[in-house]
Structure prediction request, 152 residues.
Amino acid sequence: MLSIPPSPQGAPVNLPAAVPNLVQAEQLTDKLGIEITEWNAERLVGTMPVAGNRQPYGLLHGGASAAFAETLGSIAAVMNAGEGRIAVGLELSCTHHRAAREGVVTGVCTPLHVGRTTATFEIAITDESGKRVCTARLTCVVRDAPPGEKAR
Prediction:
């Protein structure tokens, strides 16, 4: 199961109660082996193993990179949305620069725009040698949770 450790400064004030709902067991994040290693409102970092996420040629699957990027961006969007608000993906673009064949890739998600109704993030995915594997950009729609429904 994906875990979100406490930030070095302790739990930030802006972490909505809904974030744990995004990382429950039996979700895609669990299947991909994604772990969040660092987070605050300005930067979210996670890792994902290449093993188990390869395409038939033995390379990291581009879809796994896209899912990894969208996971990091979506969690960051919810963290910045505030209590009682939800964020859903609107657009995701990924440029795959080089192959990763083994080890762990690291994704660093930073906000490009955080507004009342939209939030856009850049996610840089690098291999263990620090070489960029993928650059992704995710835009989410941010809105109030529907009445009678918990924010997720």
About this structure: Helices lie at 19-22, 28-32, 62-81.
